[in-house]
């Protein structure tokens, strides 16, 4: 399984430098909750179609990093650029001012997210969960949104559950619906926040399988916060180790996960490998 | 009712109970036949007050509930004041204010005792139920807001498509209970001269005091019969609301 994806990793080493062609750039991002500085200056470029795995100890700020890109959390300082557009600031009379809701909506349309706890809409069927946003947000016509949603649900193996409600599904099935719901919006960047950690162990496989399939298709960039090291090794172009609010080490998975320089990362991996 | 083996003595007791009641007035079939048609006349008034109060009361609940969630501090405090005043004072006093006091003080007339009654009930119950509206909206899980933001919905779409449909499911069982309370409180309009069921009952009692037990028994039955469909509706709403809510 892992040989094929490691071959696609040549580009990963240079991606630490600033790139104009990045789909997402974090520029010196800091984030504090009250007096606690959780992120202490993050610089990060993500290339189109790049698969990035974000690892690190609990509380190191992994979730916070991706939530800021989804506009669920506002950075304390720094800029995030999405496809050339400043996410949290906009220009007004030649000055940078805090983004309005309208501006946020214009920029975050390229971003999608899958959550640890699925967050499916419990009052809607599986199909409605998927087709609501294309119809109302992207103004797609109903027939086409429905058709694409069904195709997407078939792709994640739930073509026979269209009219079921989320409460009738297993955790693994719910998470696959959540992925289909995000995918029908055709984002350029998809964020995954520990999407298997709320699942029973026997259900983890089916969800990882779907992510693997999505990753193979290629064109979408993916940022995965994960504790599944084998999986990261398998699908990621680049692994980033976050520690104490900074990027402590990053590089191709074969290097970061198998031959790390950072001492804290060595300890961290040791705990996982047992 | 009677335990076996004590038949003779308790039999005698029951008899004397009936005897003694005879002097105070008893419930007889013939009296029921007289009273029933008179009370029926009050049903229409009671139902009219009820339906108007339901429509206005729930509207008030949503308006005040949303105002209390607004970002506008003036709107929020003003609505908060309204809610506390109407929850903190009694419905009868509010009714008398609207019907007697306000017209005298400000020289404006609500127009009819019907609207005074409906307004008092709606404002009172609207105040209580606005807390349900507000509380339900607030208790829809944070993850639901986040998922709809991640799908790039507008603030309005998030409310309309995701939050409110779930919040309403939480409101329904409570709303059902208030429906029945509202029915019962409509009887207060008899105090401002409306000819509802209770008013008709009072008239009959005034005409013939010995009929009072029968009259008020029938009044109870009438209210209970009107409450039955509301109780049934509440059960339905509870069942419906069990599906499809994500709370924190
Ligand atoms: N809304 C918040 N208010 C206050 N503190 C917060 C908030 N969100 C996160 N934090 C704190 O910020 C730090 C980083 O949190 P974050 O969730 O990003 O970590 P994480 O790396 O995702 O951890 P985990 O592996 O446990 O999910 C933690 O110490 C957390 O307690
Ligand atoms: Mg996390």
From TrEMBL, chain A:
The subcellular localization recorded is:
Cell membrane
User: ABC transporter domain location, by residue?
Assistant: 24-269
Q: Which Pfam families match?
A: ABC_tran
SUPFAM superfamilies (UniProt xref): P-loop containing nucleoside triphosphate hydrolases (SSF52540)
Which Gene Ontology terms of cellular component type are present? plasma membrane
Topological relation to the membrane, as annotated = Peripheral membrane protein
Keyword Lyase annotated: no
Task: Provide the alphabetized UniProt keywords.
Answer: Amino-acid transport, ATP-binding, Cell membrane, Membrane, Nucleotide-binding, Transport
The GO molecular function terms of this record are: ABC-type amino acid transporter activity; ATP binding; ATP hydrolysis activity
Protein origin, superkingdom: Bacteria
Q: Which family does it belong to?
A: Belongs to the ABC transporter superfamily.
Protein name in UniProt: Amino acid ABC transporter ATP-binding protein, PAAT family
> Origin organism of this chain?
Oceanobacillus limi
TrEMBL record, chain B:
Q: Which GO terms describe its cellular component?
A: ATP-binding cassette (ABC) transporter complex
Kindly state which keywords UniProt assigns to this record, in alphabetical order. Answer: Amino-acid transport, Cell membrane, Membrane, Transmembrane, Transmembrane helix, Transport
State the compartments where it is located. Cell membrane
Q: Where are the transmembrane segments?
A: 49-69, 81-102, 114-133, 175-194, 214-233
Specify the ABC transmembrane type-1 domain's residue ranges.
Answer: 39-228
Single annotated GO MF: transmembrane transporter activity
| Keyword match Nucleotide-binding | no
Any one Gene Ontology BP term:
amino acid transport
Q: What is its main location?
A: membrane
**What InterPro entries does the annotation carry?**
AA_ABC_transptr_permease_3TM (IPR010065), ArtM/GltK/GlnP/TcyL/YhdX-like (IPR043429), Ectoine_EhuC (IPR014342), MetI-like (IPR000515), MetI-like_sf (IPR035906)
> Does the keyword field hold Manganese?
no
Organism's domain of life? Bacteria
Q: Which Gene3D superfamilies match?
A: MetI-like
Q: How does it sit in the membrane?
A: Multi-pass membrane protein
Alphabetized PANTHER family for the sequence: L-CYSTINE TRANSPORT SYSTEM PERMEASE PROTEIN TCYL, MEMBRANE COMPONENT OF AMINO ACID ABC TRANSPORTER
Name the protein family.
Belongs to the binding-protein-dependent transport system permease family.
Name of the protein in its database record: Amino acid ABC transporter membrane protein 1, PAAT family
């Amino acid at each position: 399984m892992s040989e094929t994806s490691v071959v696609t990793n040549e580009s990963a080493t240079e991606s630490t430098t600033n790139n104009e062609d990045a789909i997402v750039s974090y520029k010196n991002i800091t984030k504090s909750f009250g007096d606690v500085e959780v992120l202490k200056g993050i610089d990060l470029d993500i290339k189109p179609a790049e698969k990035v795995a974000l690892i690190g100890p609990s509380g190191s700020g992994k979730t916070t990093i991706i939530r800021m890109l989804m506009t669920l959390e506002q950075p304390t300082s720094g800029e995030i650029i999405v496809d050339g557009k400043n996410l949290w600031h906009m220009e007004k009379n030649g000055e940078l001012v805090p983004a309005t809701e309208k501006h946020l909506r214009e920029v975050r349309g390229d971003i999608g997210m899958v959550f640890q706890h699925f967050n499916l809409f419990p009052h809607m069927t599986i199909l409605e969960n998927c087709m609501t946003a294309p119809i109302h947000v992207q103004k797609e016509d109903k027939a086409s949104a429905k058709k694409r949603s069904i195709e997407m649900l078939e792709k994640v193996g739930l073509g026979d559950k269209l009219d079921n409600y989320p409460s009738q599904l297993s955790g693994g099935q719910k998470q696959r619906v959540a992925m289909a719901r995000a995918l029908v919006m055709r984002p350029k960047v998809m964020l995954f926040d520990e999407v298997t950690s709320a699942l029973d162990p026997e259900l983890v496989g089916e969800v990882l399988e779907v992510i693997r399939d999505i990753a193979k298709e290629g064109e979408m960039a993916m940022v995965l916060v994960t504790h599944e090291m084998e999986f990261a090794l398998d699908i990621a172009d680049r692994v980033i180790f976050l520690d104490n609010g900074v990027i402590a080490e990053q590089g191709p998975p074969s290097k970061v996960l198998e031959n790390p320089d950072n001492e804290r990362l060595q300890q961290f991996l040791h705990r996982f490998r047992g | 009712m009677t335990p076996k083996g004590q038949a003779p003595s308790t039999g005698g007791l029951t008899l004397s109970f009936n005897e003694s009641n005879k002097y105070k007035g008893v419930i007889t079939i013939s009296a029921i036949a007289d009273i029933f048609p008179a009370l029926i006349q009050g049903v229409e008034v009671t139902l009219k007050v009820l339906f108007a109060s339901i429509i206005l009361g729930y509207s008030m609940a949503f308006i005040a509930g949303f105002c209390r969630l607004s970002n506008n501090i003036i709107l929020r405090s003003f609505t908060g004041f309204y809610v506390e005043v109407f929850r903190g004072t009694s419905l009868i006093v509010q009714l008398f204010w609207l019907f007697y006091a306000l017209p005298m003080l400000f020289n404006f007339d609500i127009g009819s005792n019907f609207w005074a009654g409906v307004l008092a009930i709606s404002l009172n119950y609207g105040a209580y139920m606005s807390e349900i509206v507000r509380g339900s909206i607030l208790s829809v899980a944070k993850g639901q807001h986040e998922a709809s933001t991640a799908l790039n919905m507008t603030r309005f779409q998030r409310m309309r498509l995701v939050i409110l449909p779930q919040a309403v499911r939480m409101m329904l069982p409570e709303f059902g209970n208030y429906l029945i309370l509202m029915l019962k409180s409509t009887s207060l309009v008899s105090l401002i001269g409306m000819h509802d069921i209770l008013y008709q009952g009072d008239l009959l009692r005034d005409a013939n005091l010995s009929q009072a037990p029968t009259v008020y028994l029938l009044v109870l039955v009438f209210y209970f019969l009107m409450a039955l469909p509301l109780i049934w509706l509440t059960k339905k709403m509870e069942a419906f609301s069990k599906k499809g809510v994500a709370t924190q």
